[in-house]
Design goal:
Blueprint: E1 5-10, H1 15-24, E2 40-43, E3 48-53, H2 58-63, E4 69-73, H3 74-80, E5 85-89, E6 95-102, H4 103-106, E7 116-121, H5 124-133, E8 137-142, H6 149-152, E9 158-163, H7 167-171, E10 174-183, E11 185-189, H8 191-196, H9 198-212
Parallel strand pairs: 1-3, 1-4, 7-8, 7-9
Antiparallel strand pairs: 2-3, 4-11, 5-11, 6-9, 6-10
The structure holds adenosine-5'-triphosphate (ATP) and 1-O-pyrophosphono-5-O-phosphono-alpha-D-ribofuranose.
1-O-pyrophosphono-5-O-phosphono-alpha-D-ribofuranose (PRP) binds at residues 145-148, 161-168.
């Protein structure tokens, strides 16, 4: 039986910390940080294979069993609602998912009085659920990036987006008016792999749990 474990690692802003985390439990994926166009990294001595995946695609690779494990932001998990085992909060990549609007509109605005909103976001599912739970009718406009631009050019009045330093909101004259969720990075596991490779995967989960405290 092939005992190699496949891990989906997201490229982008959580790549380096993901690799640092695995190194702390003795899995050295540092070759992935080299400037390269390779997408599969084999580590036969460690019985590990790592895939470089776009952050939003990690749940898909893990759900389909192309990867046994993956690392992904909670924002992506909330949006996609895939059938995955999510055993661990890895406690990095902290940010918040918020509703924001132009500072001028925020002055005197009361989110508890909203009845209808027009919102641009990369997270239509989360936004829909958030407003539905408040009984607010929401017209959602799906965007893929530069979300803060939408209210500045009249595409929407408000946005749902991630905030970490707050600098992007500030530089574009926007204010946070509601927090939807606190976001961190999570370990996700394919449900079948959890059974067929229980010992190996349990070892990784326990190892990570021990160092995360
Ligand atoms: N300021 C931030 N903005 C966006 N994501 C952040 C921020 N801080 C932490 N994160 C976390 O980093 C994860 C990966 O973000 P990254 O920007 O690399 O990918 P992405 O642009 O969301 O995905 P994709 O490239 O597939 O569209 C996010 O899903 C989120 O959990
Ligand atoms: O609070 P801050 O530290 O300013 O970070 C928040 C910004 O970072 C993310 O955008 P990203 O850099 O991923 O670019 P994008 O426009 O392509 O989504 C997010 O969508 C916000 O725009």
């Amino acid at each position: 039986m092939n005992s190699t474990l496949t891990i989906a690692i997201p490229k982008g802003r959580i790549l380096t910390e993901s690799i640092q985390l695995f190194s702390r439990i003795g899995i050295d994926l540092s070759g992935m940080l080299d400037d390269s166009r390779k997408l599969i990294f084999d580590y036969p001595d460690q019985l590990v294979r790592a895939l470089i995946v776009r952050a939003t695609d990690v749940p898909t690779y893990v759900e389909h069993g192309c990867a046994d494990l993956g690392i992904v932001g909670k924002d992506t998990l909330l949006e996609q609602d895939k059938d995955l085992y999510e055993p661990l909060d890895l406690k990095f990549g902290y940010c918040r998912m918020v509703v924001a609007e132009p500072a001028g509109l925020a002055t005197g605005d009361d989110p508890t009085r909203w009845t209808h909103v027009r919102v641009a976001t990369k997270y239509p599912h989360v936004a829909e659920q958030h407003f539905a739970a408040k009984g607010v009718q929401a017209e959602i406009i799906k965007l893929y990036g530069s979300i803060e631009l939408a209210p500045l050019v009249g595409l929407s009045e408000r946005i749902v987006d991630l905030v970490s330093t707050g600098e992007t909101l500030r530089q574009n004259g926007l204010c946070e008016v509601e927090t939807i969720a606190e976001i961190t990075t999570r370990l996700v596991v394919n449900r079948a792999s959890l059974k067929t490779r229980h010992q190996r995967i349990r070892g990784i989960i326990d190892g990570l749990e021990a160092i995360l405290g």
